[in-house]
Amino acid sequence: MATMASTATAAASLRLAFPLLSAPASSSSYSNTLRFPLRRRSSCRPLAVAAFKKLSEASPVPIPQEPTQPLLVDEDALPPKAGVYGVYDAAGELQFVGISRNVRASVEGHRRKVPANLCASVKVAVSDEEAPDRSALNNAWKSWMEEHIAATGKAPPGNVAGNHTWVGAPQRPPDLRLTPGRHVQLTVPLEQLIDRLVKENRVVAFIKGSRSAPQCGFSQRVVGILEAHAADFVTVDVLDEEHNHGLRETLKAYSSWPTFPQVFVGGELVGGCDIISSMAERGELAALLIQK
Ligand SMILES: *[C@@H]1O[C@H](CO)[C@@H](O)[C@H](O)[C@H]1NC(C)=O
């Protein structure tokens, strides 16, 4: 295909949101991101999409605009089956390509969540099989994305990572706690618990507030930077008096650093928000996170 090279270039410059198979968009554990392009296969081995229609072969199905009403679309046109689907806005622009174990339920979820003009019609391609293989569904999604990128030079806006209109914000893991609670008498000094924690977890951020709701701008920035680096990191809330009582004072002494947040990598203090920010800007943080 003559457009293959430009497809790869356009795709390479984007970070795409990869919709994981799951319940409708209202579910919060819905999204993940994936770097495109996927490894190119030799041209004689096409992606395994035989069971699914191509994007250009599927016919658009209009979606009723009133989200409070039941979804009045013929089940044959929008079946409750596993497949790939594309959502079009009122101007006929493809906004999002998703995969689902139940495309009807997913489209219903979008219809209730996004502005009506963004979800004016859908194209779907479902599998003939009752429970198609996950990789067959993933390949169908990839093929639809590639077809669209080849035709327009860009990904649908809803599939660009960071756009939470279509898929929810990434689910954040809970913060680590140093103790089960204040009612429990500690048998080891807090300093030892800190030491163990920063040595057992490669990247640790001691922050003010929780990971999902940081209580200060510096902590928020540090969480954002680590997430942007796709770092596998844990957080500890230094304001959690119930589970981390005494942590602030003990940590300041442990690290000889007077403020929070504090980021540790490989058991060693790297720094606070300013240091992490400037390392990120200079590209040093990525190197550090990979290296250690
Ligand atoms: C997110 O997606 C919506 C709908 O597809 C689009 O209108 C909007 O421009 C996108 N936002 C960004 C920041 O890409």
Automatic annotation (TrEMBL):
Glutaredoxin domain residues: 203-270
Signal peptide: 1-27
CDD domains per the UniProt record, alphabetical: GRX_PICOT_like
Keyword Signal: yes
Keywords noted in UniProt: Iron, Iron-sulfur, Metal-binding, Signal
Annotated GO MF terms: iron-sulfur cluster binding; metal ion binding
InterPro entries named among the record's database cross-references: Glutaredoxin (IPR002109), GRX_PICOT-like (IPR033658), Monothiol_GRX-rel (IPR004480), Thioredoxin-like_sf (IPR036249)
Family note: Belongs to the glutaredoxin family. CGFS subfamily.
Function: May only reduce GSH-thiol disulfides, but not protein disulfides.
Protein name in UniProt: Bifunctional monothiol glutaredoxin-S16 chloroplastic
